[in-house]
Amino acid sequence: MSESLNFWENYYSNHQIPTDESFFARFVMPFLNEGDTLFEIGCGNGRDSVFFAKQGMKVTAFDQCEKEVGFLNDEFSDLKDLLFKAGDFTDLGEQGKVKNVYSRFSLHSVALEKEINTLDWASSSIEENGLFFIEVRSIFDELCGEGTEVAKNAYVTDHYRRFLEIEPFTNRLEEAGFNILYKLQSKGLAPYKTEDPVVIRIIAQKV
Ligand SMILES: C[S@@+](CC[C@H](N)C(=O)[O-])C[C@H]1O[C@@H](n2cnc3c(N)ncnc32)[C@H](O)[C@@H]1O
Description:
alpha/beta
């Protein structure tokens, strides 16, 4: 088991119940239409996927944590347009086409080359004009620099985080075949307990 998988499996073994949807999910909602298909990558305890499914989206949500995925499929078996699947989102292969892909706090969990694989996968999975919604930690997050440095802007504390620079990241999205419709780097977007990290929000459209 990889260290990241081990960390998140342990994390969810104590925090299984989905809580409220994130502020980012609420921000994204007006860009979705009822009946839209959506993949979430790195869905964690499923809170945002459950929210989107309850709002009428057809959702498939991926996470590496098999036990949590099994738990969520049992817990939400009544939601017919919601399916949780176990898998490494950097190596999902052909999963069909969707209107939207949603990634909150998951792309900073993987190394740069894995991120690039994921952007390419999202580009081939999203229908023309469909949207890719991303929220990630920025290099201006106060946590950037804490722990052991393992690569550029990547540090391990109790788990791995790679903090993103907005311009190179949007360039990589463009190289993968997206137009950037919206980008914002700020505090105040993802407060959690005493933390208020600087995060990057992107809406990218498949060309
Ligand atoms: C910080 S949590 C975010 C969870 C959720 N998106 C949220 O905002 O509450 C990161 C999640 O990404 C998952 N993850 C990290 N790397 C992954 C990978 N390569 N494949 C699948 N899931 C991964 C972890 O298991 C974890 O559930």
